[in-house]
Amino acid sequence: MVRSLISTATVALKKESNVKYEEAVKTLNTLQTNAQVLEKIRSQRDRFAHLNVPNMIKFSQRAGISLADIDSLKIIHVSGTKGKGSTCAFCESILLHHGYKTGFYSSPHLIEVRERIHINGQPLDRERFTSYFWDVYNKLDKTKAEHENSMPGYFAFLTVMAFHVFLQEKVDVGIIEVGIGGQYDSTNLIQNPIACGVTSLGLDHTSILGNTVDKIAWHKAGIFKPGVPAVTAPQPALAMNVLKERAKEIGCPLHVCPDIEEYDAQGKDLQLGIKGEMQSVNASLALQLCHIWLGKVKRHNENGLAETITCKGDAEEMPKDYSFPLTEQMLQDNENGLAETIACKGDAEEMPKDYSFPLTEQMLQGLATCRWAGRNQTIEAQNITYYLDGAHTLESIQQCVNWFREDAEKEKKSLRKTILKVLIFNTTGDRDSYMLLRPLKACDFDLVVFCPNIASLRANNADQTNNTVTLESQMKRCLLNKESWDKLFDLENDGDQESLLNVAAEGSSHVISDPTPANKTRIDVTNGQQENTSAVTDKDVKHENQMPDTATNGHFSSFFSSESCDNQSQRFNQALEKLVPVSHCLPSISHALALASQGKTLLPAELNDMPELPSHFKSVDHVQILITGSIHLVGGALRIIQDIPDDGSETD
């Protein structure tokens, strides 16, 4: 009886906590800029970008946080295009294993906004998130009248809130991931971090940061501070030159992290807890940043006593073990044209690219146990394997392709079953979907589904709300993404009509065992004509360019034989059906997963009017589903796959 009462009370308290959390997140969402206003802001961004950091300082002060308070957090600040989150996650794990209390601020979130603020490797629980949210929100709300009713935007507010949380939780280190760019990013009110890092650079957010890698590098280097050590991943020559120039201009030492193989693991295996070929670069950068942090914050003397090194601005002391003689080879350029050493301002010592050090057991454990959801993540279910990666740049998509092809092939060989390969894709903003989709063609998908970053057409929970885009614009973008995919199979682009005719001439029962991506051609199979994808029309929206039910694909292992055709045109179309993946646009992630799963998993029963697929799709033994192109898409998929209730309640 007593146990039952306690259980009932616990459930009631948990429900009340969830309701309060939802209320907090809904209030947070009011700080999102609506789509129309956002478009106007974007058009005027260059005129007002320089005000972002001064405004952030004002917001922080109104919340009771001074710049000195922020500096007391002993911050590691990380910018870059690819791998910022992974690098920060490695830093978090390494310093946790060294026994420090960590705070980690990242963006965006996958499922719930509280994921953006970590304490000791875990997202804030709902109760603490709610409490800290109202602490900051109420202070800002009460002072807005005397500041022209000014309130921070969504990301700016969460940045102020993260600093508040870290101060209240008394963390030993604050690990801060830049949002967009660096120079004008909301996180750049940090004046005296312990170390700054720049991950691999590429083209992203080009409408904001510029359309060349050197322009983007200028923004990313904006987090550099006088006298504060900075470390960069290897970069393209143009980007590296800009980083060097800005480091010299600002007055900070800068060096390039070495290859992961150059570290001394002291006879032990060096393993990384996050999959992906680029993770070795991110791990090396994290090792450098943590090594600097450990050396500058606490250095153990011969007696094992902690000695704190005081920060003194430009005259800040470097750890004593951080100096060494430079060899002639260190001063030479490497084969890639990147400087092995990067000059610092004045007479400061040059920092070599190949500076490595023995790895502690804590470092090795930190790297091996690190986890970062939504990046090269695999989830196995009954008869389905989900491959999730939030790649959204050309370089990260190529890495995703390499990872998926390798892991999917290993799984196929181990299962020895018929496999259906499915791609669920979306990309947003100013990203070039044609360029992002092009590497994915090599994966030989049987089915491709495009959908917006909307988990369900039912009422989304507060964590998934996005007021910055309209439903109409999201659906239009999906159609454009599909159009880009179709263009990859355009006959003129691939120029392979002759080989297709040869396939058709051999008869419709011909089995294509291992077609190369270049042999795929997009043809309207209803009339044998090349499809016109020059524009999206109302007809396209209504019918979604769906292929007929008889369309088949030659890339999964069990083909069915059809009746032989006398007409060469018919044989030609049947050959094309085996070469071109079936593709559809659907209105939500729930719809996309339902279609992709082929009834092999239970999903929300809202899914009506689903397109018909070839009957033999349903006879396959196992489905491999790659979900990529947008971290928000991956987050929505994770919510559904992991069966997280829409009311925000936690599941065990």
Order the strands across the largest sheet as they lie in space.
4-3-2-5-1-6-7-8
β-strand amount: 5-15%
The span between the termini is 24 Å
* Broad structural category: alpha/beta
**Mean of pLDDT:** 77
Tell me the radius of gyration: 27 Å
How are the SSEs placed, and which strands pair?
Elements: H1 2-29, H2 35-43, H3 45-48, H4 52-62, H5 67-71, E1 75-79, H6 84-97, E2 102-105, E3 117-119, E4 122-123, H7 126-143, H8 154-169, E5 173-177, E6 195-198, H9 206-209, H10 213-220, E7 230-232, H11 237-250, E8 254-256, H12 279-297, E9 299-300, E10 306-307, E11 341-342, E12 351-352, H13 361-369, E13 377-381, E14 384-389, H14 394-415, E15 419-425, H15 433-437, E16 447-450, H16 471-487, H17 491-494, H18 497-505, E17 523-524, E18 529-530, H19 538-543, H20 568-579, E19 582-585, H21 589-597, E20 622-628, H22 631-641
Helix pairs in contact: 1-7, 6-12, 6-13, 7-8, 10-11, 18-20
GO cellular component, one term: cytosol
Biased composition (Polar residues): 516-536
InterPro entries: Folylpolyglutamate_synth (IPR001645), Folylpolyglutamate_synth_CS (IPR018109), Mur-like_cat_sf (IPR036565), Mur_ligase_C_dom_sf (IPR036615)
Can I get a quick summary?
This protein has 652 residues and is α/β, with parallel strands linked by helices. Helices cover 39% and strands 11% of the residues.
Task: Describe the fold and architecture.
This protein is α/β, with parallel strands linked by helices and 652 residues long. The protein has 22 helices and 20 strands. An eight-stranded mixed beta sheet has the order 4-3-2-5-1-6-7-8, sandwiched between helices. It has a six-stranded mixed beta sheet with strand order 13-14-20-15-16-19, sandwiched between helices. Helix 15 (433-437) links the parallel strand 15 and strand 16 (447-450). Helix 6 (84-97) packs across helix 13 (361-369), helix 7 packs across helix 8 (154-169) and helix 10 packs parallel to helix 11. It starts with a helix and ends in an 11-residue tail after the last helix.
